[in-house]
Amino acid sequence: MKLDKHSMLLYAITDRRWLRQHNLSYEVEEALKGGTTFVQLREKNITFDEFVKLAKDIKAVTDKYKVPFVINDNVDIASIIDADGVHIGQDDEGIKTARERLGINKIIGVSASTVKEAIEAEKNGADYIGVGSIFNTTSKLDADNVSLSTLKEICKSVNIPVVAIGGISNNNILELSGSGIDGVAVISAIFAQVDIKEATRELLKLSKQVVDIK
Questions:
Q1: Which of 18, 68, 121, 127 could form a Cys-Cys staple with 84, CB 3.0–4.6 A?
Q2: Contact yes or no for 160/129 (Cβ under 8 A)
Q3: Which of 16, 33, 42, 208 is labelled catalytic?
């Protein structure tokens, strides 16, 4: 599945910390029912076999809704389950190596916090850029915030889609209006909510305002 920039509108990143009575596949499907346009599976403390099983379960759901599904950091898992791609950070496996392993038809996203990093990622073959952290976030305590002016400059400096990430919620998302982003990536704003489907619907509506989609 090649990337359509409209897939960036509402990019959901999973986190099992907020699981209640349902499993992650169920909650991802609730987000998809609410309009999530992209899903990233993010796991840090899990065995390889558990990761493979979970990734297969999530992929079955995203395939059903025909929404792009990428794995965070782990090219091995992305390759094994035939995910739509992978999202890698500045310290993870290089873009060129990931491309060689996954092939030209897979999506590769890259994290960037500076204009230089974003330009380099595009030059090396990234399909989209994740820029952050935009606001303070509990998901990545060591992340330095990226200013709105830097976000705007990154959007002007690359020709591939840009998604903002980090502490974004329905309370601050409209502050990103006019920045040039193609969408927002969120974690707790979806998965920490009691009504995931309704929270997703509201965020999608707000994201469309930010990106100026009628």
A1: 68
A2: yes
A3: 42
For 32-74, write each residue's pLDDT tens digit: 999 999 999 999 889 999 999 999 999 999 999 999 999 999 9
Q: Which two tokens mark 3?
A: 């990337």
In terms of CATH architecture, what is 5-211? Alpha-Beta Barrel (3.20)
pTM tops 0.70, yes or no = yes
pLDDT of residue 3: 85
99 is a catalytic site residue: no
- Residue 192: CB atoms within 10 A of its CB come to 15
pLDDT tens-digit profile of 156-171? Answer: 999 999 999 999 999 9
From 7, 99, 106, 111, the catalytic residue: 111
